[in-house]
């Protein structure tokens, strides 16, 4: 980032986040034997991966989607073998969503392709850039936690 006035930082971060998101979506590979999934499905899968046992309602809240839309996505992803629906051990009226082995394998392939792309991109940056980016990560994670809606 160039030396800009501090008041431009929010705008710069928004543009950077969207640009990184778009670049990563373009660089990721599709898992072996799978077709490209719509972004909404990917977001549901990522959330279940990071929070196994999450409910449809909690996904809807986290992604700011309607529960019926999430339910439709979950039905599709369950049918495709990526999600396992299990009754909650605390209250059998509720269903918990868990990643299947297929989802873990596919997610690993996608993560590996993205990691390789980022590693190569970091090698192309000027000396010290990777260290500066790494040093900024704790603050960026804290910013992300601060921006996240309370659940």
> Measured on Cα atoms, how large is the radius of gyration?
18 Å
The helix content, as a percent range, equals 55-70%
Task: Output the structural class.
Answer: mainly alpha
Total strands: the figure is: 2
Q: Which runs of at least 5 residues are low in confidence (pLDDT < 50)?
A: none
- Any idea what the shape is? globular
Structure, briefly:
The protein has 151 residues and is mainly alpha-helical. It is built from 6 helices and 2 strands, in the order ααααββαα. The protein has a two-stranded antiparallel sheet.
Can you give keywords for this protein?
151 residues; 2 strands; 7% strand
Q: How is this fold's topology laid out?
A:
Blueprint: H1 9-27, H2 39-50, H3 56-63, H4 67-79, E1 83-87, E2 95-99, H5 101-123, H6 129-147
Antiparallel strand pairs: 1-2
Helix pairs in contact: 2-4, 3-4
């Amino acid at each position: 980032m160039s030396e800009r006035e501090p008041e431009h930082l929010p705008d710069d971060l928004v543009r950077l986040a969207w640009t990184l998101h778009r670049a990563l979506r373009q660089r990721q590979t599709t898992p072996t034997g799978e077709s490209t999934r719509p972004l909404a499905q990917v977001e549901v899968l990522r959330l279940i991966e990071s929070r196994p046992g999450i409910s449809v309602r909690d996904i809807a809240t986290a992604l700011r989607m309607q529960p019926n839309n999430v339910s439709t996505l979950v039905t599709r992803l369950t049918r495709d073998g990526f999600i396992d629906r299990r009754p909650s051990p605390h209250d059998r009226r509720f269903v918990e969503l868990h990643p299947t082995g297929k989802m873990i394998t596919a997610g690993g392939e996608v993560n590996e392709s993205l990691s390789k792309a980022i590693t190569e991109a970091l090698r192309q940056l000027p000396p010290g850039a990777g260290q500066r980016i790494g040093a900024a990560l704790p603050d960026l994670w804290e910013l992300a936690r601060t921006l996240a809606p309370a659940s």
